[in-house]
Amino acid sequence: TQQDRSAHVTLHSSSNDPEENVVPGVAALVGLLLTGLLYFVLPPNVIIGPSWLLLVVEAAILLPVIIDILTPWNLSHTARRTLVLVSLGMSTLALVIGVALLILTLPADTHATNLLRSAALLWSFNVLVFALWYWELDGGGPWKRHLSGHHAADFLFPQQAQGKSWAPHFLDYLFLAFTGATALSPADTNPLSRKAKMLMMIEAVISLTLIVVLAARAVNILGK
Questions:
Q1: Contact predicate 109/101, CB 8 Å
Q2: Residue 172 CB-half CA count within 13 A
Q3: For residue range 122-132, what is the model confidence (pLDDT) as tens digits?
Q4: pLDDT, tens digit, for every residue of 72-87?
Q5: 169 three-class SS
Q6: CB burial of residue 144 (10 Å; 0-12, 13-18, 19+)
Q7: Which residues contact 63 (CB under 8 A, 6 or more apart)?
Q8: Does the global pTM surpass 0.90?
Q9: N or C: which end of the chain has fewer CB within 10 A?
């Protein structure tokens, strides 16, 4: 059904092997393509190559997954996960390069609006990228979480702590990433594994750099 397709996993009812037909949530797939759109609107001083490059490359990589969602074609679970992780890795690299270039060009950039725009877009990029990492790595990914009955693995959501039969969706991981980038600490969801704690620390460091250092620099320029 269409409702199943928009949930944390999507099953093709025509197959006898559900593992071969589990695909990432549609929301997570859209999130990956949105990272390419964010890259497209970033200022030229914080990107390498043409602005459309990341979006086009990600769309090409994810095309088999999109076809798998829209048609009865069954792409293997391993192939799907590999394509998604490769695309996510490219988005992460683009984020790191963008933050590094913004820091390197900071002394020479005296345009406050450009700095604020860059910081805001990279901050949003940061939230989206880490939401995708949380979605893909928690409990080994959406398929393994499905097999385990969505028991808490790398993250403990409040509903899981209360012993409810509950499955986190991509929006729950997006909220986790948003609160981590805003408050620089967990809100209502606790990291359980070292892997989860490391990811949250990296996200917080990037967010702190963008919000405190770069935004403060832009405000100082405005005050001159």
A1: no
A2: 20
A3: 999 999 999 99
A4: 878 888 888 899 999 9
A5: coil
A6: middle
A7: none
A8: no
A9: C
